[in-house]
Amino acid sequence: MAATLAKVPACVLKSGILASLRFNSVAKCSSQRAYSMATLPFLCSVFREKSSIRQRPLDLLVRARTALGNWKMDMRQQSNYAYRGAVSTKNALDEQKHDSEEETSQETLRHDINDNDMVSVVPRADIKGKCVIANTNIKAGTHLFTLYGDKQRQPTLYTIQVASHAHIHPEGKLIFVNHSCSPNTQFQFSPSWDLYAARDILPGEELTFDYTTTEWQMAQPFQCSCCSTKCIHKVQGFYFLNADQKAERDGVLSPVIKKQLKEQTASE
Ligand SMILES: C[S@@+](CC[C@H](N)C(=O)[O-])C[C@H]1O[C@@H](n2cnc3c(N)ncnc32)[C@H](O)[C@@H]1O
Fold first, then answer.
1. Given pLDDT bands bounded at 50, 70 and 90, which one contains residue 116?
2. Which SMART domains does the record match to this protein (predicted)?
3. Residue 57: what pLDDT?
């Protein structure tokens, strides 16, 4: 399939992707979406004469790239929570350094690298908000953001939990990174909290991470629109996941979630 797509002229491919997205926009579930992506080459030729994607809303382009990225990932059969292990070395360090809850030092987190040129913040109409997209090919393991910002006791829809009662309101573009149940980025927690590409990311593809790997109980739960086959539908924090969903996230959890999980298990 990838080889076939490679032979399709770029303009035809773009129009085909738009057509596929029209179907995607009415598709309610991942199987319909998968069908849409499987018929992409056919739709490419049907929509050969359609107008340039530049005339379309940027939102469609973002979704096209994201869908294509997800499809490529599926093709690689990365079904077992694919992003785990992309940058696993630091997790070993995390095990050693975060056995006890350790509040993240604001000073050590302060870097100027969050406004990197690899990504842009753009509107995303379907959630009436913004999102972060890649401006270029981003290789798996690439450093994207360092978490820094004001620390507060109460969580909000924007904060990232760094201790039981400490939440950082991220500065920079990181604040606009949305959730996905099959994310293409993940946090590493040592020495600072940094977001890395968990797989190769295409230009125009939306960057996402799994909020349940950092949030125990979220301030504002929401209905997930990621359409992943692994979608948990209602995103409300790690605490609310079922046993299988919790097990799938083993290895990518923040030290805070690990600690709270340990405490919960001990008290049961
Ligand atoms: C940290 S903000 C992310 C930026 C946000 N999209 C914005 O424009 O302000 C988190 C909020 O974005 C929305 N969001 C993030 N991921 C989502 C998803 N997968 N499905 C639906 N809404 C999502 C939810 O409203 C959530 O409370």
1. confident
2. SET
3. 54
Checking 235-241 for CB contacts under 8 A at 24+ apart, the result is: 235/179, 235/211, 237/211, 237/212, 238/212, 238/213, 239/264, 241/212
Nearest CA to ligand 1 atom 1: 158
Residue-wise pLDDT tens digits, 165-205: 999 999 999 999 999 999 999 999 998 999 999 999 999 99
The CB of 125 under 6 Å from ligand 1? The reply is: no
Give bridge partners of residue 179 from the DSSP assignment.
209
Taking the centre of ligand 1 as the mean of its atom positions, its distance from the CA of residue 163, in whole angstroms, is: 22
Provide the residue ranges of all domains of the chain, joining segments of one domain with +: 2-56, 89-267
The phi, psi pair for 133, rounded to 5°, reads: -120, 155
Instruction: Provide the CATH number for the domain formed by 89-267 in this structure.
Output: 2.170.270.10
Closest C-alpha to ligand 1, atom 14: 178
> Tens digit of pLDDT for each residue in 47-61?
444 434 444 555 666
Is any atom of ligand 1 closer than 6 Å to the C-beta of 240?
no
Tell me the pLDDT tens digit for each residue of 140-167. 999 999 999 999 999 999 999 999 999 9
User: Residue with structure tokens 């008290």?
Assistant: 267
Distances (CA, A) of 13 to 49, 53, 252: 11, 10, 35
Distance CA 100, CA 31 (A): 42
